[in-house]
Amino acid sequence: MNCEVCQLKELEVEHFEIREVLRCILHTIVFHRALGLVRPKDIDSELFEITYVQCGDAELEKKIEEKIDQFIGWVEKHPNKKSQATWFSNKTERLYWEQWYINLNVAQQPKAHFAKSHHSKVVVDPGECALVERSVRRAALEAALREVLFQIIKFVNEKRDHIPPVPNVEGVSFPYEITIPSSSDSSFGMDVIKRMLQTGHPTMLS
Amino acid sequence: MALQGSSQSESGRHEQIISQFLLKSLHIILDSRIPSLSRHDLSGELTPVSRVRKSDKWFNLVLGERPASLEDLNFWHRNVMDPMIIDVILVHEGPSSSATDDLYTTSGVGVPVETVIERWVVQYEPSGTVPPQQVEAPASYKKMYQKAIVLLRSLYSIMRLLPAYRIFKQLSSLNQTYNFDLIYKVSSFGELLSRAEEKVMKQYSFAPVEAPSGRLSISLTYQPTLSGFNLAPSTPVPPNIITDYVGSPAADPLKVFPCTDKGIPATSFSFRRIHSPTSVPFQRPHSWSSGIHRVAPFKQNHPLCGSPPAHHTPPVPCHSSSPPDIYGYRIQGYRPPSHKKGISFDEHQLSPPFLPSPSPSPPTYFSSGNPFRTAQGTETAPVSIPLPNMGRNSRYTIPNSSDPNRHSLPPMSPRSTRLDLSSQESPSSGSRSFRKTDALRSGELSGFAQLYSGQKIFKDSKDDSGRFSGIVSSSGSPRVGFSRSSSRLSFQDDLDDCDFSYPFVVDDVDTSDSQTRTPEGKEASESTSQAFPSARKSQDAAVGVLVHMLRTAPPLRQDYSCYSSQTSKSEFEGEVGSGSGFCVPRKTTDALEELKSYREMKDLLLSQSGTRVIKKEEAKPTAFVG
């Protein structure tokens, strides 16, 4: 059984942008892989001028939010580390047939310069520069995120033969795992959520 | 026999999947581009998935109720081998073409320009050779179906990532109107794009879905950026003050208006420009649009309405009554029981292709609304006056329902009424002005052009879209202005209440001898009519009376040839009877008598308004004395 792997482009994000970026990416992946009956729901991103699509499954949305919270918590505890998360693994009976890697480079939080400065003029300028710089980075991130979404769509379209048969279910049709990698010295541990469906013998589409 | 039956059912199933694929793609595309067809539920309360109609469950993608136009397309696009080309067209303002536009527009808008910003080509490409074993494979259609599910998901996602989606979102907003619009055109052939368009547009193709005897493909040509277009919120046009307002025929139907050819400047619009020959062809023999005006060549071999072609009448196996069940998994309520096969199959879009066509001709022109209605209604008088404030596109509706002169408009034709009331069901674009132009285009345009030439085209004060309002009064009489009409009518009521009748009220003036009406009298009436818009009380009327009298009063000097007593009512005639000698040199006594009459008149006026005149009392003894 071949396992298709998709390594998404790395995104440089700030801490407060992690949630929205992951929402866009995860929901897009899930929407293309939850092949049961869905009523799509358009969501306008809070930070970017991007509209992504959710499956309209409340339980799924909750799971994803929980996972994002865990990831953010992990990032806070492990600064200066690139996180390459094996986020979404479609599997049937523990046979992974697809893996997605979401690569995020979380920028360090900038130090607070203004608190130490004695001159008000000096305070203002770095603040303004920071704002301009942030808006530029935000625009770049939005463009990069859009590219990632296009990358997902392209991968989803090109690789269809490995998808198992779609059962007649609503929403998520295949079991999936969302995994956050942990460093060796981390006490956070690996958190794995498994969702199993009773499936028959998997037959592959060739 | 069994093999033949199964292969027939397989081919029937393939056809059905292809047909539904085309329909679903069209639904996805139009739902994301045409605001009037978008069925997004903004309330947040969605129908549970389990209660979704079976016809909406195709490809496991619930989109909501399909507009009627798509149902008609299902009937029109009978030949699944024909490509379905969907053009998403941006209608926007172009540069002003001539200085004369400024005379007729208040906002200096340009000519509407239509630009194809997206062209979607959805088609089934049959392959040359078909391996027999593939055709007979029982699960071949299931694989195709599953892959089509994935493809349509991608299509749905990418619709929201393309630049045109932002425009759609803007147009879908309820609290803002814009000077642009999105319309669509669906056809089985694609008109060549201009070189300029081709240069800037990019291509995108989805990976095709392999089918046993061909493949399903979706490709896109699109504008990568729309920043070059002048897309902005439309600004409300300030009310235009008509300085030479001569009244409305509704107030006085008997009033004879002077020749108005010279005197009535149009306040707007480029509605006439919409009907310019360059942009409005009337024939669309073979594609379906929401307002595009390009002549499409007739396609000879296009399947006509009427009896369904043979490939749409396969025998219906029991399990094919719903979107294919994959490997026997069931969900409650989703798969109908086997004994209901015939009924369920009909539910899944097979019945529309078998509907007899109301017209033996090919679908000629799906301008707006139901194409069948359009085809039937092409000969009717398209006096379509959309109801105001309908849905999000109220900017395109005409004027103000509170316009008191509306009663003078002819009643709406049933067809136009139907168009107006089915704003959500209409397959046309979000542009109601284009719907209106469609109505006009159906044959009465030249008549309308003549009817409205020289007439003022007014505009609803709430209309923000400027050029696209397309407001045309269907009143048969010239309508010079509307802004003052309501107050003027109230003034009329005041007049009726007063016993005192004012000679310069237009109605009264009209009943007098028109031959003796002098230019001065007319001028006075006009000036007083100008003064009267704000008159709400008899005191103001009295002032007006006095002004008029002073104006029409003969000068103290000579040359009273123009003086006319006919401008006064009979009540005054007694007072100024001595003044009827027009060319008699006046003496002091005459002047004194006239002064006396004026004084009495003044007193009368003041007494009417409830003010006591002390001087009158004082004058009496002097009169006796003198």
From TrEMBL, chain A:
Record's keyword annotation contains Acetylation: no
User: Which GO biological process categories is it annotated with?
Assistant: autophagy
Report keywords, A-Z: Autophagy
Under the heading InterPro entries, the entry gives: ATG101
Q: Note whether Lipoprotein occurs among the keywords.
A: no
Question: Which segments of the protein form a coiled coil according to its record?
Answer: none
**A Pfam family this chain is assigned to:** ATG101
Q: What's the name of its gene?
A: LOC104595865
What protein am I looking at?
Autophagy-related protein 101
Q: Which family does the UniProt entry place this protein in? A: Belongs to the ATG101 family.
- Organism from which the protein derives: Nelumbo nucifera
Look up the domain of life of the source.
Answer: Eukaryota
From TrEMBL, chain B:
Any one biological process term the GO annotation gives:
piecemeal microautophagy of the nucleus
**Pfam families reported in the protein's UniProt record:** ATG13
Q: Which GO terms describe its molecular function?
A: protein kinase regulator activity
Top-rank taxon: Eukaryota
Instruction: Identify the stretch(es) annotated as Disordered.
Output: 337-438, 463-485, 509-536
Biased composition (Polar residues) is annotated at: 369-381, 391-403, 471-485
GO annotation, cellular component aspect? Atg1/ULK1 kinase complex; autophagosome; cytosol; phagophore assembly site
Biased region (Low complexity) positions are 422-432
Which segments show compositional bias classed as Pro residues?
A: 353-363
Which InterPro entries does this UniProt record tie to the protein?
Answer: ATG13, Atg13_N, HORMA_dom_sf
Q: Which PANTHER family match?
A: AUTOPHAGY-RELATED PROTEIN 13, PTHR13430
Name recorded for this polypeptide = Autophagy-related protein 13a
What species is this protein from? Nelumbo nucifera
